[in-house]
Amino acid sequence: MGQAQRSDGRNVLQGREEGRRAQYPAQRRRKQNGTRNRTGNAYRNSARDGLSVIAGSRASGGAQRSSAGERAGQQGKNSDGLENLELWEISRESDDSRMMRLANREQIRFDQRRTRPRPQPGRQNTGNPRPVSSIKRRRAKKRRLNVYRISIFLIIGVCLILIYQTIGAVYRMVHNEEAGTGKGIVEVVSEKIEANRIQPPPIIVDYLEPNDFSRPGTELKRIKSVFVHYTANPGTSAAQNRSYFASLAETQERSASAHFIIGYEGELIQCIPLEEQAYAVATRNADSVSIECCYLDEDGKFTQETYDTLIHTLAWLTQEYHLSADDILRHYDCGGKMCPLYYVEHEEAWEKLLADVENYKPETE
């Protein structure tokens, strides 16, 4: 009897345990089903508003479609693509082929938007080829540069050819004229220049002693003119007139002198250096050279010897001091004194004298 009671108690316990074990999986399945149902309902409720444009009635009107489209677009941005998944799940549960097609279409659009490359500001698309206009400009610039270089080379070449020909012509000319003399080009050219240069006439240098009345010793800084005088003493020689200038230092009767004196036989005496002033033209002593000329006749006309020496001396002085015939003056031209008398009274004779100075050619051996 005791064993029967114990066995009955064991059977009761085993039955209770088996009932509990059978009840636990059922409770667990109920909880899982409830959770799944709540999740599905939440998904359906959240996707219902986003799918109003797709599943809505076509007769709802343009205004409702636009507002629903705006809400769907805004929710599409916020849901970040979840509505496509919900749409697909709903269409799968409802087994609606139209909803399935719409879900697939939306999923494809979402994938395209997500895989589309976004433009990045500040970066250039290096894959595109260069514009045609840029290539044309570059080629045109290269052509202009090449033309410029070729022009420079041509100009330099022409200049070198001209220089070479000029030097060759000069050398041939000098060589042909001076063949066999053994002289260099520099010596030949120097001789030609010296040959064309007017040499001074023979000069008798007899300076006056420095004094306040005929040789003051004042510096002559610049020579702008050459004055021609006559002695006003017919028949006197150059030496006599020089002695007269020297005697003024003792007599002190007046101040008078000249740089040169030309005798009626053509002799030339220099009384004062060309670096000093003479007492000849009161207002022009500081920038001029004076020449006294002797004569024989009362009219004051120069002898041929005096005339020839005067022309030679004037040509030499104008060359030395870079003057012209216009810089040769009479004492009469500055102050109105009738000196030289003959060439003041005979204007044509004076014009001929100036022309002879311009046309003077040095004598060649």
Description:
Helix content is 57%, strand content 6%. It is an alpha/beta fold. It has 3 domains: 2-115, no CATH class; 137-179; 204-358, Peptidoglycan recognition protein-like (Lysozyme-like). The chain has a 6-stranded mixed sheet with strand order 1-4-3-5-2-6, sandwiched between helices. β3 and β4 (268-270) form a beta hairpin. The longest helix has 49 residues, at 2-50. The radius of gyration is 66 Å and the shape is rod-shaped. The N and C termini lie far apart (187 Å). Residues 1-5 and 49-66 have low confidence and may be disordered.
Summarize the structure.
Helix content is 57%, strand content 6%. With 365 residues, the chain is an alpha/beta fold.
Could you tell me the number of beta strands? 6
Estimate what percentage of residues fall within beta strands: 5-15%
CATH class of the largest domain: Alpha Beta
CATH architecture of the largest domain: 3-Layer(aba) Sandwich
Q: What name goes with the CATH superfamily of the largest domain?
A: Peptidoglycan recognition protein-like
Give the averaged pLDDT, no decimals. 77
Number of helices: 11
| Number of domain modules | 3
- For the biggest β-sheet, the strand order reads 1-4-3-5-2-6
Order of helices and strands: HHHHHHHEEHEEEHEHH
| Main sheet specs | 6 strands, mixed
Categorize the overall geometry. rod-shaped
Structural class: alpha/beta
Low-confidence stretches: 1-5, 49-66
* Fraction of helical residues: 55-70%
Radius of gyration: 66 Å
CATH topology of the largest domain: Lysozyme-like
